[in-house]
Amino acid sequence: MRRLRLPGVLLLVVLASATVRWANHLRRSQLPGGDPAAGWFCTDPDSLYHMRRVERLLTEGRVSQSDPLLGAPLRDTPLVVPEDPLGSQRNASPGPAIPWPPAYTHILGLLASPAGASAPAVRR
Q1: Which regions in the chain score pLDDT beneath 70?
Q2: Cβ-Cβ contacts under 8 Å for 99 (sequence gap 6 or more)
Q3: Inside any domain, residue 57
Q4: Residue 71 in domain
Q5: Domain count within the chain
Q6: Distances in Å between the alpha carbon of 71 and those of 42, 52, 75?
Q7: In this predicted structure, what is the pLDDT of residue 122?
Q8: Which of 7, 43, 66, 101 could be bridged to 95 by S-S, CB 3.0 to 4.6 A?
């Protein structure tokens, strides 16, 4: 009986993980209108945010150090911007500081830039 315990536990783990993947696949395959051309969505919020950062990089030409929509539920709350000892503000643009370094966004921007136009006016 003891010899069957480990394979039984492993089988339960495999079945549980397969069930989660299957349920996630069902959620992704049920697109609006049932047609893949009708819409696209992503179930990973981190990927969506990195895509938003790349879009801002391609639109603005640089990776922003702050994001006014990062704290969206608290958007109407006045933001306190810390000051340097010299009195100049650290964040010139509004919004909380983005906690991720810009290297990943630069790499994604380099990979995405050949796919689109180089000038923001042409892309729109």
Answers
A1: 1, 25-43, 71-94, 115-124
A2: none
A3: yes
A4: no
A5: 2
A6: 20, 14, 6
A7: 47
A8: 66
Residue 107 has a pLDDT of 92
The pLDDT, as a whole number, for residue 75 is 52
> E strand or H helix at 112, and its extent?
helix 103-112
pTM, rounded to two decimals? 0.51
Q: Are residues 59 and 96 in the same domain?
A: yes
- Same domain assignment for residues 96 and 121: yes
* Residues 48 and 23 reside in one and the same domain: no
pLDDT attached to residue 9: 92
One domain, residues 49 and 25: no
State the pLDDT at residue 46.
Answer: 82
Which residue in 44, 62, 59 sits closest to 98, CA to CA? 62
> What pLDDT sits at residue 31?
60
Distance in angstroms (rounded) separating the CA atoms of residues 42 and 25: 11
- Per-residue burial over 93-117, b if 16 or more Cβ lie within 10 Å, else e, is eebbebeeeeeebeebbeeeeeeee
Domain hosting residue 97, numbered range: 44-66+92-124
- Determine the Cα–Cα distance for residues 15 and 21; give it in Å rounded to an integer: 10
Domain membership flag for residue 74:
no
